[in-house]
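// run 5 | inverse folding | seed 20
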């Protein structure tokens, strides 16, 4: 079975003039398939549609795309699905095509990371990255294809016993891990970093905020200087694949596993 489709065609290729390749002019989403069901598929579609609008082109999932994704999920019951959208072919130069773009739509199937269930059970440790994210409000929150900052972050080997990077912006505010959004509990309640200038506002971040509010937690979104870690009791990370994973340690600061993260996983069907 094919594992990559370009504009609905199996094992097809993209043009070397595609703007996604040339300029990173596009965005993407990664979705978890669990027991042949695509989790939160409509939320992923909404996020892609909104992201495309922010980049200046229109996109909606077609019936053919939905059918392709559902068949992929049926054929790959425990997997990852990725949708990547680019503005399509546009020739040389940064200026987008004047007419309506012919969007390139790429669907790919990937194995589910086998270490994520272990992470959920034990928690992980983070180390601060020296690579700082630029502050750009026009792109903040979108999972766009310009991911060179993350490539630089991941190019450095992690120390023994460290599982991922803590990422700050150029103002030394906490933004995210290299792959997930972060939540912190202090005496004032649960807080998650503001992403108005940098970072990815993940689909799972939104789901977790709603669920925490349902569970009667106080949740706030705010700028977080790294110094706040000394006031934090519990930390956990979220994305659409790993669900909810506790953070045991950031640099030299240790934390206790939150007593409610297992409930979050159960209520949102995120247990691996």
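// decoded
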């Amino acid at each position: 079975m094919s594992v990559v489709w370009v504009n609905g065609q199996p094992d097809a290729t993209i043009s070397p003039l595609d703007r996604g390749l040339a300029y990173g002019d596009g965005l993407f989403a990664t979705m978890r398939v669990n027991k042949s069901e695509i989790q939160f598929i409509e939320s992923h579609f909404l996020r892609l549609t909104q992201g495309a609008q922010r980049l200046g082109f229109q996109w909606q999932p077609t019936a053919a795309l939905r059918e392709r994704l559902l068949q992929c999920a049926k054929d790959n019951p425990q997997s990852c699905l990725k949708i990547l959208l680019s503005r399509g072919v546009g020739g040389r130069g940064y200026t987008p095509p004047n007419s309506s773009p012919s969007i390139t739509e790429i669907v790919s199937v990937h194995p589910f990371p086998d270490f994520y269930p272990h992470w959920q059970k034990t928690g992980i440790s983070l180390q601060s990255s020296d690579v700082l994210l630029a502050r750009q409000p026009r792109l903040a929150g979108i999972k766009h294809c310009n991911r060179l900052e993350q490539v630089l972050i991941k190019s450095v080997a992690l120390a023994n016993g460290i599982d991922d990077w803590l990422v700050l912006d150029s103002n030394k505010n906490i933004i995210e891990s290299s792959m997930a959004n972060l939540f912190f509990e202090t005496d004032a309640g649960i807080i998650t970093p503001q992403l108005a200038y940098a970072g990815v506002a993940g689909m799972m971040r939104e789901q977790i905020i709603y669920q925490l509010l349902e569970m009667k937690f106080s949740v706030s979104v705010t700028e977080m200087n790294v110094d706040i870690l000394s006031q934090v009791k519990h930390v956990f990370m979220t994305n659409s694949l790993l669900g909810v994973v506790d953070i045991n340690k950031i640099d030299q600061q240790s934390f206790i596993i939150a007593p409610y993260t297992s409930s979050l996983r159960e209520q949102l069907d995120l247990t691996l």
